[in-house]
Amino acid sequence: MASFFKTVGDKVIFSGDGELIYYVPEKYFDIKAAEVIGEKIYVMGMFTYAVFDKSGKKLMVKPFNAPTMIECIPSSVTKEADYHLEGTKESKAYRLLHFKNGDELICSKKIPVDIACLEKFVDIFKGGNLPENIPYNKIQDYVIKNAELCRFDYKVSTQIIGMVISEIYRYDKDLDKPFRLANTDDMLAYKAIHVEKVPKYTSAFTAITSDNADEAIAASMTTKGKADSPLEKIVMV
């Protein structure tokens, strides 16, 4: 464990003369994957963090890769409405959790058995809001790891999970194309979309079956692809 992390009992404490910052997407708070509960912040442990020395010099930037809910107690919280985080493509709104020496980065390393942990991860995943610095070929590992940490079973095969990933993650230069069909070796050359937007990029039939009626009609009229979806082949028999 890095020198600026210190374990005290069941807690992980920041041990440094500068500052450590969690960069939590504001979207997490919107979908309740991050919540302020008294002095604590309860957050899905998938975000970027950075460590600074006492002069403000950035020492390191790393992903926090724990796809389960954690509690922390920062010294202060600030907001950035349009922040371009290192290692990402687009500027987004973030909530910055600032930790000083002695602050609790993780209040307890024990992971409670709680279905809400899995539900919150699924909300992030299906919304296309997983951190964009996760390589495409590693995304399924996070889905499986979340279930393991929360001690729940998705009750579906990894092939089904892979199919969902293949539709949510599109080639960033052509959203009509699933990333898996892109001719690129860059595992970050994708853009994730909300699962509800997937029909827009498949066939006109699946587009018009979308939940949002206005979007469904518009998408069905403008969808470029002519391929029939598996559902369409069944219904049209």
Please describe what this structure looks like.
The chain has 237 residues and is of the alpha+beta class. It has 2 domains: 5-106, no CATH class; 115-235, no CATH class. Helices cover 26% and strands 32% of the residues. It contains 7 helices and 12 strands. It has helices at 26-30, 115-126, 139-150, 158-168, 204-208, 213-222, 230-235, and strands spanning 5-8, 11-14, 19-25, 34-37, 40-52, 58-72, 76-83, 92-99, 104-106, 169-171, 174-178, 190-192. α2 (115-126) packs antiparallel against α3 and α3 crosses α4. It is globular.
Helical stretch tally: 7
Question: Could you give a short account of the major beta sheet?
Answer: 6 strands, antiparallel
Which structural category do the helix and sheet elements fall into?
Answer: alpha+beta
Residue share in helix: 25-40%
Overall pLDDT, averaged? 85
SSE run = EEEHEEEEEEHHHEEEHHH
Number of domains: 2
* Low-confidence runs of at least 5 consecutive residues: 204-210, 213-223, 228-237
Strand count: 12
Shape: globular
The portion of residues forming beta strands comes to: 25-35%
Give the helices and strands, then pairings:
Elements: E1 5-8, E2 11-14, E3 19-25, H1 26-30, E4 34-37, E5 40-52, E6 58-72, E7 76-83, E8 92-99, E9 104-106, H2 115-126, H3 139-150, H4 158-168, E10 169-171, E11 174-178, E12 190-192, H5 204-208, H6 213-222, H7 230-235
Helix pairs in contact: 2-3, 3-4
